[in-house]
Specification:
CATH topology of the largest domain: D-amino Acid Aminotransferase, Chain A, domain 1
Strand content: 15-25%
Strand order of the largest sheet: 9-8-7-6-5-10-11
Shape: globular
CATH superfamily of the largest domain: ATP-grasp fold, B domain
Number of strands: 11
Distance between the termini: 28 Å
CATH class of the largest domain: Alpha Beta
Oligomer: single chain
Number of helices: 13
Largest sheet: 7 strands, antiparallel
Helix content: 25-40%
């Protein structure tokens, strides 16, 4: 029944287009790739986008079995995360209120505030970020310069566009800003809380690019993995699978960069992971501002698409499933 349900929801046009790309890059016949994708789906629970993203055509079955794919990731969700608590992470204002102790910036939720509160906030922070209360991938987020704006008209536009959360613009740590200054480059820290014991199986840094003010991978940004000592030793990669050892916008070296206050970032994430133990599998987006370590937001459904990109693999080309399984299932 599960596979029949997946079959009925497949975007065949997109799937065939993806298979053509795989066939072109691998120089293997279309039909061979199609059959192999079906086999991988039945054997490992992977989808065609998993096959494409993780270059499964170059891997043997032993290697493929080590990858966190859509099915594996969903199993982590089901085991560790209680859907009744998702709202805490889905509603940005609710999240900010609960984790206020760890928030270093001012914010204002327009639904719970008066027009006078809005005017006071804008006076204090004339350049700020306007965000929808929900939303993914940085959609709907704008940097607002209110200095020469009609504040009443601006207020109405926020209400009409559902940009109900206003946040002080983070003054990013100069070292991190040197990589790319136009966006807040966030450190994605994945925590797993099993029976009160918190582990950190994966850390990456997401970096903005192209003049954009967001760092999201799906909105034109790039990312790379961070080692346990806070040093970046692998190049960054963007959605087009382009690889960068230096940032294309600033020329700043990415490989060799050390995240400032890295130990403090990890310690804070471990503490926050205990606040809502019903969400045991969490992706925290952290940054370092002039005020110290700051949490930008958290995700109760952390995406696995950044876990096992080809420039970040070791020589064995194995994925992260054994590392996660050891924590989640005590294997």
């Amino acid at each position: 029944m599960y596979y029949l349900n997946r079959l009925f929801h497949i975007d065949f046009k997109r799937m065939f287009s993806t298979i053509k790309k795989i066939s072109k890059r691998s120089k293997k016949p279309f039909i061979f790739i199609l059959i192999d994708i079906i086999i991988c789906s039945l054997k490992f629970g992977s989808g065609y986008m998993d096959y494409f993203q993780f270059y499964f055509e170059n891997l043997n079955n032993s290697q493929r079995a080590t990858y966190i794919n859509r099915t594996v990731n969903n199993n982590y969700f089901k085991k560790l995360n209680n859907h009744d608590y998702f709202h805490i992470f889905q509603n940005k204002h609710e999240f900010l209120n609960l984790f206020k102790e760890y928030i270093k910036r001012d914010y204002l939720y327009l639904k719970d505030s008066s027009y006078e509160d809005y005017l006071e906030f804008v006076k204090k922070h004339p350049v700020f970020m306007a965000k929808p209360d929900g939303g993914l991938c940085g959609k709907g987020i704008e940097m607002i310069d209110s200095n020469d704006a009609d504040l009443k008209e601006l207020y109405s536009s926020f209400i009409n566009n559902n940009q109900l959360l206003l946040e002080e613009r983070i003054s990013q740590n100069k070292e991190i800003a040197s990589i790319y200054p136009l966006a807040i480059n966030t450190i994605r820290v994945v925590t797993i809380n099993v029976n009160g014991k918190v582990s950190v199986p994966f850390v990456a840094i997401r970096i903005g690019d192209g003049g954009r003010v967001v760092d999201n991978f799906n909105s034109g940004g790039m990312f790379t993995v961070v080692d346990e000592d806070g040093v970046i030793r692998k190049p960054a990669i963007n959605k087009e699978n382009e690889v960068f050892e230096n940032h294309p916008y600033t020329g700043t070296p990415i490989v060799g960069f050390k995240i400032p206050m890295y130990k403090e970032i990890i310690e804070q994430c471990k503490k926050m992971a205990t606040i809502v133990p019903e969400i045991g599998y969490t992706g925290w987006d952290m940054t370092v501002s002039d005020k110290g370590v700051d949490v930008v937001e958290a995700n109760q459904l952390p995406g696995y698409d950044i876990y096992q990109s080809f420039p970040h693999l070791n020589e064995d080309k194995c994925g992260l499933k054994p590392r996660f399984d050891k924590i989640v299932y005590n294997k």
